[in-house]
Design goal:
Layout: H1 16-28, E1 34-38, H2 45-57, H3 74-80, E2 87-90, E3 94-95, E4 100-101, H4 107-118, E5 127-132, H5 139-150, E6 156-162, H6 170-174, E7 177-180, H7 186-196, H8 202-212, H9 216-224, H10 227-239, H11 247-256, H12 262-282, H13 288-295, H14 299-318, H15 323-335
Helix pairs in contact: 4-5, 7-8, 8-9, 10-11, 10-12, 11-15, 12-13, 12-14, 14-15
Length: 338
């Protein structure tokens, strides 16, 4: 079993406070017209958005326990199938020319929101728009969305799902009620992994929980790809600091192989390890391995390296550059004092 897509997922756990906030807003009769659901990737933002949308579209008459709606309910089935007349989803679209998802949400897509919300609800209740990946809205599209937020029609709710709220216009953020989802705790992620990956050996599941950093989405992504082998390579590189041999770059590249996802997993995990060490070190909570890492450079140096590695990864993946060379640059960056 794999995790259902957010619009199809009846399971939601670990974010009780956020769900209760939305449930109270519905029962209070003073519903805010726009909500901004934020938090790191993979903590349930989109799942909560569709859970909220289903509850509204069902007339606020879900089952017991917050916003839950039985999967056999007609509204649940229509939202899952994307056939509910009063729900519109906005996200990056498929580009037929490039055969890839567009890099941003464009104005033509957002203009559909205004037209959609001007219509009378087909079932006499709410009209709901879910903007999934709101951080991907470009400037023109953001201005178009802002106009909708400034003059919201009655019985309409916009739900913006966003992993990087700082990329949104301040005027958009100010017109939304913000709801931030925190990291999931390890027992919650472990339980979800057992549900979604019941055939996976428990040792592997628990290793992925340790790599998840509070995100079930991250754990599942690493499970599907080369997460654990990439994590082992990251550990080898960090254990070799402060002076890893350049020959290690070839070893890492060979270990990652030709997989399209392995390079991204390696870089993500490496940057996560650096950021966790910097964060825990600043709080006085560094474990021995983190303390050794921080002893090799200043905290400011590690922040600079973390940023440089992010740029290197983005350019390598975005421009389809040589990943083996990128790994060599990574090892050199870690090994050279600034």
């Amino acid at each position: 079993m794999t995790a259902p897509a957010p619009r199809e997922n009846p399971y939601f756990t670990g974010q009780d406070a956020a769900e209760s906030t939305l449930a109270r807003a519905i029962t209070s009769g003073r519903m805010h017209h726009a909500w901004l659901i934020t938090g790191q990737q993979g903590v349930g933002k989109a799942t909560l958005a569709y859970r909220f949308a289903r509850h509204l579209l069902a007339g606020g008459k879900g089952g017991e326990g917050g916003l839950g709606l039985d999967p056999s309910h007609p509204t649940f089935r229509r939202v899952a199938a994307n056939t509910h007349a009063d729900l519109l989803t906005v996200e990056r679209e498929w580009n037929e020319k490039t055969k890839k998802l567009r890099g941003e949400i464009i104005i033509e897509t957002v203009r559909e929101v205004s037209s959609f919300l001007r219509l009378t609800p087909a079932e006499g209740g709410w009209r709901v728009v879910v903007v999934d990946g709101a951080e991907d809205i470009n400037r023109n599209a953001a201005n178009a969305l802002l106009k909708v937020l400034e003059e919201p029609p009655p019985r309409a709710v916009l739900i913006l799902v966003c992993s990087a709220a700082g990329r949104l216009l301040p005027t958009i953020r100010s017109r939304c009620r913000r709801l931030r989802l925190g990291k999931l705790d390890d027992p919650t992620i472990s339980g979800l992994m057992a549900r979604y990956e019941p055939e996976m050996p428990s040792e592997k599941r628990e290793r992925l929980v340790g790599l998840a950093e509070g995100s079930i989405g991250r754990a599942l992504l690493l499970a599907d790809g080369d997460g654990i082998p990439a994590a082992d390579l990251v550990s080898r590189v960090l254990d070799a600091l402060p002076r890893p041999k350049m020959l290690m770059a070839d070893e890492v590249a060979d270990g990652l192989g030709r997989s399209e996802d392995a390079f991204g997993s390696f870089m993500d995990l490496l940057r996560s390890a650096i950021s966790a060490a910097a964060r825990d070190g600043a709080r006085g909570r560094a474990d021995p391995d983190q303390a050794r890492l921080l002893g090799a450079r200043s905290l400011a140096d590690w922040v600079e390296i973390w940023q440089a590695l992010g740029t290197l990864q983005a350019e390598t993946e975005g421009l389809h550059l040589d990943k083996r060379q990128a790994i060599a640059s990574t090892i050199s960056m870690l090994a050279t004092r600034t």
